[in-house]
Amino acid sequence: MISSINTTGFFCGRELELQELTGLFHTQKVFVIAGLAGIGKTALIQAFAAYVNTLEQYRDRVLFITCKNGWTGKDLFSEIIELSGEGGQEPIGTIAGELINLLERKSLALFLDDFHQVEDDDSRELVRQAGTLHKGRLVLATRKRIELPPMDMIDIYQLKLSGLSDEDTSRIIDQLLKFHHLTELNTDQKKRIFIKTGGYPFSVKLLISLLISGGQSLESLLEGPGFEEKIEQYLLIRVWNNLDQDEQEIFMRLSLLRIPVRPEEIPGIPESMRKKTLGKFLDTFLLEHNQVGLIELHSLLKEDAARHLDDPRRSKLQLEIADFF
């Protein structure tokens, strides 16, 4: 039942937060992991879900869903019902009530990443009612504060993520470089990366990805104009400019896919180009890759790639994708 969890990468830098969450799992019913884009929410909620799936009571009773832009509570309901094996059902009562009953009846742990994409009255009511769960659990990752009255938030465990420490940032850098059998950076270089990125995991990964791709030195990246003003935007521009035309084409197509897909399910891409390009993306940590072989761009990379599409081009690609599926 578990799906869309990245178990092929590594988890580093949020061990204390994970220990905190796992320690509370049996007594807490609702968890909210909040923070800015790129702060490490997805990696943490994925690691938490993977842990819960090892517990006897919840083995194969974990639902992991990445919410998509434009979803409503009803879209979320349909996705949960389908993944839980009860497809085709329409809500008899309220959407929130039906989902709470499902989680409780089947003892399910529901993990919702990017919850801010779908937050509406129905989804907020789901969070509010989840405090009544006994056997079920609800875990959310979101960029925004959930708009509920303070009294309704009392029983919700909230964890707000900030940048990693100097030490954890250094460990992430070492592991990324070790993955490619590259020479470690010295202490001063890693310290500068920590200071410049604020310990944001996504920014660190983008920076190391550019180093791995070659052709750019650490000095040129760190001292580039605009780095400190808008770090992520600066790095995303450098990543995009570092892609050749074929790679940019695949990036744009991936940005329009609403769900993780198998590599062969990217429409309009020749097999030879697909294998070569996706291999590079995986090697340089630009793709999320889950345990059943599905791939997906990080949400920030999706947003950036989509900005390179004008309306006619976007419409044409969306039609191709719709026809393919």
Name some characteristics of this structure:
globular; single chain; five-stranded parallel sheet; 325 residues; 10% strand; alpha/beta; two-stranded antiparallel sheet
Notes on the structure:
It is a single chain. The protein is α/β, with parallel strands linked by helices and 325 residues long. Helices cover 47% and strands 10% of the residues. It has helices at residues 15-24, 41-52, 73-83, 95-105, 121-129, 166-179, 187-197, 201-213, 218-222, 231-241, 245-255, 271-283, 299-306, 311-324; strands at residues 30-34, 62-66, 109-113, 137-142, 156-160, 287-289, 295-297. Strands 2-3-4-1-5 form a five-stranded parallel sheet, sandwiched between helices. A two-stranded antiparallel ribbon has the order 6-7. Helix 6 (166-179) packs across helix 7 and helix 11 (245-255) crosses helix 13 (299-306). The radius of gyration is 20 Å and the shape is globular. The two termini are 22 Å apart.
